[in-house]
Design brief:
Elements lengths: L5 E6 L5 H12 L3 E5 L6 H11 L7 H24 L3 E5 L2 H9 L8 H5 L6 E2 L2 E6 L20 H17 L5 E5 L5 H16 L7 E2 L1
Helix pairs in contact: 1-7, 2-3, 3-4, 4-6
Bound molecules: ligand Z5A and magnesium ion (MG).
C-alpha cells in the first residue's frame, strides 16, 4: 500500500488557513484526516489554550514554546499511523508557526535554530502551502480578530518577517507561497486544490523529517 501524504496549510494570521483546510477535507472526503495545531483538546493543548485566551495565565516564552512543540509530539504517533495506513493528513499550522511565533519574540538565545530543535524528527510535509497577504490590516476586520494573545498588529508584523527568515533557514522544496491578497475563499481554493491533487498523485514512499 502507498503511504498517505502530509499536506500542511500554513500562513499569516487570519489568512484563511482553517477555512481552506476544511474545504480540502470536504472535497476529498474519507481519504483525508484533518489536524489543527494547537490541538487544544489534549492535556498540553488545554494549557496552551489557557495561555492564549487568559492574559492572567502567563508562562516564560521558552516554556510556552516547548509546550507548542510537545503538543505536536502528543499527536505525532496518530498522524504517522494514519499515513502508514494510506490516509492523507491535512495540517492546519505546524512546525513553521511554532518557530516563527516564538522567534518573533526576539528573546536572547531563542533564535530560529533553538526554536526548531524540539521539533526535529517530526515528519516534514509533502506539500506546504503558505497563505500570505501583502498587508494584514484588512484581515483585522475578519471575525474574532484581536481576542487572543498574539493578535496585535505590531507583533503580527514581526511574525510576518520572521516567517520568511524561517523559510531561509529551513530549506524545503515542497513549500509554495500562495498570495491570497484580494482573493475570495473560492479563488484561493481554486489555486491550491490542483497543487494538493498533484501531490496526492505522487507515489513517493520516503518520509522527510524536520
Ligand atoms: N501558535 C504558536 O505560537 N506556536 C505554534 O506552534 C502554533 C501556533 C501551532 C492560535 O492559532 C495561535 O497559536 C496563533 C499562532 C500560535 N496566534 N496568532 N495570532 P490558531 O491556529 O488557533 O489561530 P486561529 O484563531 O485559528 O486564527 P488563524 O488560524 O490565524 O485564522 P485562519 O485559520 O487563518 O483564518 P480562518 O479562520 O479560516 O478565517 C478567518 C475569517 O476570515 C473567517 O470569518 C473566514 O470566513 C474569513 N475568510 C477566510 N478566507 C477569506 C477570504 N479569502 N476572503 C474573505 N474572508 C475570508
Ligand atoms: Mg485557524
Amino acid at each position: 500500500m502507498t503511504r498517505g501524504k502530509l499536506i500542511l496549510i500554513e500562513g499569516l494570521d487570519r489568512t484563511g488557513k482553517s477555512t481552506q483546510s476544511e474545504k480540502i477535507v470536504k472535497e476529498l472526503g474519507d481519504e483525508v484526516v484533518l489536524f489543527k495545531f494547537p490541538e487544544r483538546s489534549t492535556p498540553i493543548g488545554g494549557l496552551i489554550n489557557q495561555y492564549l485566551t487568559d492574559r492572567s495565565f502567563d508562562l516564560p516564552p521558552q516554556s510556552i514554546h516547548l509546550l507548542f512543540s510537545a503538543n505536536r509530539w502528543e499527536v505525532n504517533a496518530k498522524i504517522c499511523s494514519l499515513l502508514e495506513s494510506g490516509k492523507h493528513v491535512v495540517l492546519d499550522r505546524y512546525v513553521y508557526s511554532g518557530v516563527a511565533y516564538s522567534a518573533a519574540k526576539q528573546i536572547p538565545g531563542m533564535d530560529i535554530s533553538w526554536c526548531l530543535n524540539p521539533d526535529k524528527g517530526l515528519v516534514k510535509p509533502d506539500l506546504t502551502l503558505f497563505l500570505s497577504n501583502q498587508d494584514s490590516s484588512s484581515l483585522q476586520d475578519r471575525d474574532g480578530y484581536g481576542e487572543e494573545r498574539y493578535e496585535k498588529a505590531a507583533f503580527q508584523k514581526k511574525v510576518r518577517e520572521t516567517f520568511f527568515q524561517v523559510f531561509d533557514a529551513i530549506p524545503d522544496d515542497n513549500r509554495v507561497i500562495v498570495d491570497v491578497t484580494g482573493k475570495s475563499i473560492e479563488q484561493v481554493f481554486d489555486t491550491i486544490m490542483p497543487l494538493v491533487r498533484k501531490v496526492l498523485g505522487n507515489n513517493s514512499e520516503d518520509y522527510l523529517y524536520f
